[in-house]
Give the backbone structure.
Amino acid sequence: PCTAAEPEDPFEILGLDEQASRRDVESAFRRQALQWHPDRHPGNAAVARAGFERLSRAKEVLLDNGLRKAALRFRFIQRRY
């Protein structure tokens, strides 16, 4: 889980490196979305929904060029400090 002071890394969430292509992002999302889809966890739908939404946000960031650049800058800064 993420706190306001510590945003989550979309690359880590989807298990991708910084060189991942759009195709890689979409493939990683589909693979993990099957595991987290709320319909597959009827007894624990809230947790599954939260995991699915987390994956969706990560995919959205990595498929948007501006958001992806911001995520890369954040990673760079985190590594420096």
In short: The radius of gyration is 13 Å.
